[in-house]
């Protein structure tokens, strides 16, 4: 309880002052694993990829998935993003350089092993991610306060900072 | 006397802080509107038509769901909206959100995306002109 409080304080301080890319408040679990995901810190990625949804942290998908998502941006889940070639290439490079293979997060390792040789089209179809959320029903995801499984921030209030351990499902 | 002064003060205060005084169109957007006027062959746009367009609903041919501009931007453009994936959209009315309609490239990018999403085609210059005129009238 006490350590949780300290961690929470550190997180607030970190979000206020320390460069968010430093895992200063990484929650090291009992066995010393790093249960933390480096946040997304590229301005172009933020500008182009967070107007419609949560800014997904690059460590949640393998590089090959990100490359496919950016390449097929004209058919993006029913939207045509119409990115110009230069923008697409810069975003693809950023995501590739920070993908699950590179993030150093324990969760990324689980995602890579879970995806095997496949190329997941979404984070929410990776078997390990589905397993972690198996207790949450379809109806719950449809609540107006949530909207979609893809709306990570609705239940992970500090998700943008890399903390996905903290979770609370809104009514 | 005292009450007259405070009434005047209140009026001045109201005019300044009601926000309406600030929703001025920048030269870039004025130029964009002029180019729409030229293409549409009209001399004026209509805020009333823009409001109708903003609220009109249409069933998408593939998804079979009803779509409209106001579904995401809400029927009251001074309020925050929300995407289907749950992301908050800041208000569209420039009187409450000074960042709206300041960058013609951004405006065109979103017209292209959202018109395709709702209407399965690009918006006409007239629809775009009426829409922007409505937003600046609020």
Structure at a glance:
With 171 residues, chain A is an all-alpha fold.
Which structural class should the secondary elements of chain B be placed in?
mainly alpha
According to CATH, the homologous superfamily of chain B is Cytochrome c-like domain
Distance between the termini of chain B: 35 Å
Give the class-level CATH name of chain B.
Mainly Alpha
CATH fold label of chain B: Cytochrome Bc1 Complex, Chain D, domain 2
- List the strand order in the largest sheet of chain B: 1-2
What fraction of the residues of chain A are assigned to beta strands by DSSP? under 5%
> Which stretches of chain B of 5+ consecutive residues score pLDDT under 50?
11-22
The average pLDDT value of chain B, as a whole number, equals 88
Number of strands of chain A: 2
Nearest-angstrom radius of gyration of chain B? 18 Å
Query: What would CATH call the architecture of chain B?
Result: Orthogonal Bundle
C-alpha-based Rg of chain A, rounded? 16 Å
Q: Give the overall average pLDDT of chain A.
A: 85
SSE order of chain A, one letter for each helix or strand: HEEHHHHHH
Count of spatially separate domains of chain A: 1
Strand order of the largest sheet of chain A: 1-2
Quickly count the helices of chain A: 7
Structural class of chain A: mainly alpha
Low-confidence stretches of chain A: 5-33
Helical content band of chain A: 25-40%
What does this structure look like?
Chain A contains seven helices and two strands, in the order αββαααααα. By secondary structure, chain A is an all-alpha fold. The longest helix of chain A is centred in the N-terminal third of the chain and has 15 residues, at 2-16. Chain A is globular, with a radius of gyration of 16 Å. Chain B is mostly helical and 138 residues long. Chain B has one domain: Cytochrome Bc1 Complex, Chain D, domain 2 (Orthogonal Bundle), CATH 1.10.760.10. Chain B has helices at 2-17, 27-40, 47-55, 69-73, 104-119, 125-137; strands at 58-59, 66-67, 81-82, 88-89. Chain B is 53% helix and 6% strand. In chain B, the strands form two sheets. In chain B, strands 1-2 form a two-stranded antiparallel sheet. Chain B has six helices and four strands, in the order αααββαββαα. Chain B is globular and about 45 Å long. Mean pLDDT of chain B is 88; it is low at 11-22. The chains are: A mainly alpha (171), B mainly alpha (138). The A-B interface holds A 50-54, 78-82, 146-148, 150-151, 153-154 and B 63, 82-87, 89, 109, 112-113, 116-117.
């Amino acid at each position: 309880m006490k350590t949780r409080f300290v961690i929470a304080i550190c997180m607030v301080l970190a979000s206020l002052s320390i460069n968010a890319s430093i895992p200063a408040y990484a929650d090291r679990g009992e066995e010393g694993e790093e249960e933390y995901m480096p946040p997304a810190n590229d301005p172009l990625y933020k500008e182009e990829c967070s107007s419609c949804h949560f800014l997904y942290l690059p460590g949640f998908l393998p590089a090959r998935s990100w490359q496919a998502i950016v390449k097929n941006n004209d058919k993006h889940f029913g939207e045509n993003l119409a990115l110009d070639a230069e923008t697409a290439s810069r975003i693809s490079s950023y995501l590739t350089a920070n993908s699950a293979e590179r993030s150093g997060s324990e969760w990324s390792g689980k995602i890579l092993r879970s995806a095997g040789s496949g190329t997941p089209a979404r984070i929410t179809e990776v078997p390990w991610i589905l397993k972690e959320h198996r207790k949450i029903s379809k109806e719950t995801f449809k609540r107006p306060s949530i909207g979609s499984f893809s709306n990570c921030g609705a239940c992970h209030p500090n998700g943008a900072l890399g903390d996905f351990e903290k979770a609370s499902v809104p009514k | 006397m005292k009450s007259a002064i405070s009434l005047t003060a209140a009026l001045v205060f109201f005019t300044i802080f009601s926000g309406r005084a600030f929703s001025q169109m920048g030269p870039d957007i004025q130029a964009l509107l002029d180019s729409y006027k030229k293409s549409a062959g009209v001399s004026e746009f209509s805020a009333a038509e823009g409001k109708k367009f903003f609220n009109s609903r249409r069933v998408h041919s593939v998804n079979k769901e009803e779509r409209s501009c106001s579904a995401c931007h809400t029927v009251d453009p001074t309020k925050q909206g929300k995407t289907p994936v749950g992301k908050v959209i800041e208000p569209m009315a420039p009187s409450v959100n000074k960042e709206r309609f300041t960058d013609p490239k951004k405006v065109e990018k979103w017209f292209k995306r959202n018109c395709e999403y709702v209407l399965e085609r690009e918006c006409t210059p007239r629809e775009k002109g009426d829409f922007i005129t409505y937003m600046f009238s609020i």
